Amino acid sequence: MITYEGNKKQIGHCPVAIYEDGKFLSYLKHRFIEHSPDGFQWGYEGSGPADLALNMLVDHLMRKGATAKQARDMVGDLYLEFKRSFIALMPAKLIIRSEEINDWLKGQ
Questions:
Q1: In this predicted model, what pLDDT tens digit does every residue of 9-47 receive, in sequence order?
Q2: What is the distance between the alpha carbons of residues 40 and 35, in angstroms, rounded to a whole number?
Q3: Distance separating alpha carbons of residues 41 and 32, to the nearest angstrom
Q4: Domain ranges of the chain
Q5: Residues paired with residue 93 on neighbouring β-strands, in sequence order
Q6: Pairing relation of β-strands 93-97 and 17-20?
């Protein structure tokens, strides 16, 4: 199971780590910068949360075999609703599991 985790210890850019079954894999890449050149954020509906939502969904779909371009095309504008449904509601400690993303995508 993939888990995306972050902890707001600072104002501004907050890295999001990717774990698989509890083992650290890497940090989430900011592949698509469409709103926030300063990086990821969460807990509100701004530009940092929008880019986090977009890049998290893209990463999730790439782990299922899509290329970055295919994943971006599949996401379309859905990431804005994902931002409102998940990213904007996260407290200082961000934890989102791949199963939650799968369930959310099935409902879209």
A1: 765 678 999 999 999 999 999 999 999 888 899 999 999
A2: 10
A3: 15
A4: 2-106
A5: 7
A6: unpaired
Helices 78-85 and 47-62: angle between axes, nearest 10 degrees: 110
Residue 19 in tokens: 């774990």
Token pair in block for residue 23: 């083992």
Within 13 A of 101's CA, how many CA atoms are on the CB side? 24
pLDDT recorded at residue 1:
95
Q: Considering the entire predicted model, what is its pTM?
A: 0.94
> What letter does residue 29 receive in the DSSP assignment?
P
Closest among 101, 11, 95 to 63, alpha carbons compared: 101
Joined together, the tokens standing for residue 99 give 């199963």
